[in-house]
Specification:
The complex is a heterodimer of chains A (390) and B (195). Chain A contains 14 helices and 17 strands. Chain A has a seven-stranded mixed beta sheet, with helices on both faces. A six-stranded mixed beta sheet of chain A has the order 11-13-12-15-16-17, with helices on both faces. Chain A has a two-stranded antiparallel sheet with strand order 1-10. The longest helix of chain A is centred in the middle third of the chain and has 18 residues. Chain A starts with a strand and ends with a strand. In chain B, helix 2 links the parallel strand 5 and strand 6. The chains are: A alpha/beta (390), B alpha/beta (195). The interface between A and B is medium-sized, with 28 and 22 residues.
């Protein structure tokens, strides 16, 4: 993210949850299905209050489970309504079945996820396990580092969903971001509404003069082709995302890319990660740079679709890389690591890449931990096994 | 050595339900009003009423990027004196840093108490009888807002006017004009007391 304007804007401070609610207020969706779960509850509480105070026209539907929340969004979206929801952890997993329906039906639903550990054992704190559990469900997934990015991604995410007719998941780190009060700048509501525009779906269930079927039976002779089309649609997302981030920069002064390159240009040692730990990692990069160490950070923003070619290009000059995951893929290497290996594998670049796992179940990660990872790279301390930052 | 040298960091020590989070947010919002960058967040543990809690505040003149918890504060604020029996509130506070304690005791009495558990705390101690002030002026036990006055007096991180205006913004609609007036008086009293 680069700040393109120097003009002093009014700064406010909100939690990540409240920042999402503020973006949703500006979007003013037709339908929001709500079911509370920590650490997402702050979003829907704030939104329900906005609705009760008459500040939005949204039909807030209180449902009896997350499965129903996603079902309500699917029904509403298929009927032509701009539909949103928010969840976390077990809630996201309970929606699992419906996530595939939403993406298969090409419904532009926006969901904010406060990423959290999943049971068992029971833990309500932040990590990326819930997000990774649904990474193959056909949703666009965008990570956020802080409250500012939650706000920005929520606004951009709504537009992106409708542009490509695919559902979008905007992800913030549960508690680290959802419950931290941080500074952010918000854009003028009128500008946001103009940016998103009116939602005019091509086909809906309620266009009775153009009757269509959503989700018909597709057996051996056609299911396969539907699924290939879905993949094609997902691969068109990157270009649209690039256009939307450029348009958003016009109203916000903040420009996003598929990933953020922090002091990568001449970096020999690079850490790859996503989410709130990126801020801490930037401080570490600055400190080590002052000591003459050529280190850099690649922060993943867009995770689905994964911008493999661009990421490989950004990493090509590294001597070594450490990929930090906040989730496991039990039985194999963790998700970000696999993506990076796969991205590099498609090129001629052979770069030693180490895997680290941190922050499971809300375990804190400190600047000194990240500094140690860089020192491992610099001292060429490699192992093929996953290293745990405990 | 501190990692974040240009950021002022505060830890609030309290018990669940004593309103440390609200106090931290008021301080943070007051600083935002004056053009500073802030972070305010609780230690993300189980929220049990009465259990010891930590709440963190960062204030800086430039953007704050780190998301690690505060471990080496510039100031500790102790909302409940009994916390001193179980928590190491002096941790990483050096000689020129300070601690505000809600207590009727003197600074020397508190120092003895803190160091009786084996610590060797040499920093400043600023006692303020926030319980007494809140009961006398507000008629209720509200040390969390009262102590804001003392924090501003010692740390000068925001103007008292900004803190009071934030307090009004959050509470006036909830508790009414009369109660707000009393709370504001109590904050001002803590701000004015010399200790």
């Amino acid at each position: 993210m680069t700040n393109m304007t120097n003009a002093t804007k009014k700064r406010i401070a909100l939690t990540g949850g409240a920042a999402a609610a503020e973006a949703l207020r500006q979007i003013n969706p037709d339908v929001m299905a709500v079911y509370p779960i920590t650490p997402q509850t702050t979003i829907i509480e704030a939104y329900a209050k906005l609705a009760a105070d008459g500040l939005v026209n949204t039909e807030v539907i209180q449902v009896e489970s997350e499965h129903s929340a996603m079902s309500a969004c699917i029904g509403a979206s298929a009927a032509g309504a701009r539909s949103v929801t928010a969840t976390s952890s077990q809630g996201l997993l309970l929606m699992h079945e419906m996530l595939y329906i939403a993406s298969g039906l090409r419904l532009p639903i926006l969901m904010v996820d406060s990423a959290r550990a999943v049971s068992s054992p029971i833990n309500i704190h932040g990590d990326h396990s819930d997000v990774m559990g649904v990474r193959d469900s056909g949703w666009i997934q965008i990570f956020s580092e802080n409250a500012q990015e939650v706000y920005d991604n929520t606004v951009m995410g709504m537009k992106l969903a409708e542009k490509v007719s695919l559902p979008v998941m905007v992800i913030m780190d549960g508690f680290n971001t959802s419950h931290s009060v941080e500074n952010l700048e918000t854009a003028d509501t009128k500008k946001v509404r103009k940016f998103i525009g009116e939602y005019r779906p091509e086909q809906t269930l309620l266009k009775t003069n153009q009757p269509v079927t959503f989700g018909p039976l597709a057996l051996q002779n056609s299911y396969f082709e539907f699924k290939i089309d879905q993949e094609k649609a997902m691969m068109s997302v990157a270009d649209c995302y690039a256009d939307i981030t450029a348009d958003f920069a016009e109203i916000s002064g903040r420009r996003y890319n598929f990933f953020e390159s922090y002091k990568l240009k001449d970096a020999e040692y690079i850490i790859v990660l996503a989410g709130s730990a990126a801020g801490t990692a930037k401080d570490v990069v600055d400190k080590l740079r002052q000591n003459g160490k050529k280190v850099g950070l690649l922060k993943i923003n867009l995770f689905r679709p994964f911008p493999s070619a661009e990421i490989a290009e950004a990493l090509k000059n590294a001597k070594s890389i450490a990929v930090l995951d906040r989730a496991q893929s039990i039985g194999t290497m963790p998700p970000f690591y696999m993506e990076i290996i796969n991205s590099l594998n498609a090129t001629k670049y052979k770069i030693q890449t180490a895997s680290y796992i941190y922050g499971l179940g809300g375990r804190d990660i400190f600047a000194k931990d990240i500094e140690k990872v860089f020192m491992d790279l610099i001292k060429n301390k490699f192992s093929k096994e996953i290293k745990y930052i405990q | 050595m501190k990692y974040n040298r240009d950021i002022l960091e505060i830890i609030f020590y309290a018990r669940g339900g004593q309103g440390a989070k609200t106090a931290a947010e008021i301080i943070a919002q007051a600083a935002v009003k004056e053009g500073r960058f802030v972070q305010a967040f609780p230690q993300f543990g189980p929220e049990r009423s009465g259990a010891p809690t930590k709440t963190f505040v960062r204030i800086s003149s430039s953007p704050i990027r780190t998301h690690e918890p505060v471990t080496d504060p510039d100031m500790a604020v102790v909302l409940d004196e009994t916390i001193l029996d179980s928590e190491n509130v002096m941790e990483n506070l050096s000689r020129n840093e300070s601690m505000i304690v809600n207590s009727e005791k003197t600074a020397e009495e508190l120092r003895c108490k803190i160091n009786s558990r084996g610590a060797d705390y040499e920093g400043k101690i600023h006692p303020v009888d926030a319980n007494g002030i809140s009961v006398a002026i507000i008629g209720q036990l509200r040390p969390n807002t009262v102590i804001l006055g003392k924090i501003i007096q010692i740390a000068e991180i925001a103007r008292i006017e900004s803190v009071i205006s934030e307090f009004r913004k959050i509470f006036e609609r909830k508790i009414g004009r009369e109660a707000t007036k009393k709370n504001v008086q109590a904050i001002e009293k803590a701000y004015d007391i010399i200790s």
